[in-house]
Amino acid sequence: MARPKIALIGAGQIGGTLAHLAAMKELGDVVLFDIAEGTPEGKALDIAESGPSEGFDARLKGTQDYADIAGADVCIVTAGVPRKPGMSRDDLLGINLKVMKSVGEGIAANAPDAFVICITNPLDAMVWALREFSGLPHEKVCGMAGVLDSARFRHFLSVEFDVSMKDVTAFVLGGHGDTMVPLTRYSTVGGIPLPDLVDMGWTTQDKLDAIVQRTRDGGAEIVGLLKTGSAFYAPATSAIEMAEAYLKDQKRLLPCAAYVDGALGLKGMYVGVPTIIGAGGIERVVDIKLNKDEQAMFDKSVEAVNGLVAACKGIDSSLA
Ligand code: A3D
């Protein structure tokens, strides 16, 4: 059987890391597409030359031609611009919306059967726009944010409790922004929910609240440290986890920005929710029950995403 084909649209910091991870995990052959001449070609060759030492079999190609992504099984989109210190994700909307138009058209023309994972910010609005521009089925277009936000939450919790992060599960819902909703009630250490661990004296409510806030600010913390761009190692790893779930039909339960129509009381919108990812793409949106406080936080997050989608419609009349 031929190797799967993974197209990476955008060969910047995340795109290059995605290519390296996909090759090292032998998920398939990789095509790196970027408008910056030389960047995708250089990264593809550099990573291919690490193959003999690493011992992976994968072909890598860099290109400026959408025809080279033809027949891709997975497309991961990072094309656009990242944040600089002082910028919010929403400040990127105008520039990245135009990028989503060209990317959506490129994917529709060359890889209409692909499972598409968008990473470009502001995430929830960009994945919505990418779906509109590409016209692909909703279940084949999703956004990566929840896996990363949950991973950040899990990392902070594993340090706080001094336990293996393998035993920490965590849930973050809602839009990928300041209003994201880390759900402590559904987050556990070895199955013990966080509120119980507070009662058991493992941590205090104040410390837990601080970890929740640090999770919400996780992207900005890294932007502040790097100064020249935003996080790329963990975002790439998170998207690869989603791509692997699709390619290997793993039926993983992963939070991601998916099209929700009916579940959680929502009607036809993209937002961060728990999903099952398998060979059918987003095979199911998990309709979890929220309590009153969680629902209020989720509603606020949904409102913020709707505001960004309305802004997209104001900029590009073809979306209205
Ligand atoms: P960067 O290293 O600047 O790479 C972006 C690449 O996109 C550059 O190489 C550009 O040349 C390329 N590009 C620009 N326009 C086009 C186009 N029209 N077609 C093809 N390629 C184009 O950024 P990055 O890799 O650090 O980040 C990429 C995106 O991911 C940004 O929008 C970030 O804000 C976003 N991001 C999202 C998360 C989430 O959790 C959702 C986390 C981190 C970064």
From TrEMBL:
NAD(+) binds at G10, A11, G12, Q13, I14, G15, D34, N96, I119, T120, N121. The gene is mdh. Belongs to the LDH/MDH superfamily. MDH type 3 family. It comes from the Bacteria. The keyword Transmembrane does not apply. Keywords: NAD, Oxidoreductase, Tricarboxylic acid cycle. The lineage of its organism: Bacteria, Pseudomonadati, Pseudomonadota, Alphaproteobacteria, Rhodobacterales. It comes from Lutimaribacter pacificus. Catalyzes the reversible oxidation of malate to oxaloacetate. It is an enzyme of class 1 (oxidoreductase). Residues 148-303 form the Lactate/malate dehydrogenase C-terminal domain. The active site is at H176. GO terms for molecular function: L-lactate dehydrogenase (NAD+) activity; L-malate dehydrogenase (NAD+) activity. This is Malate dehydrogenase.
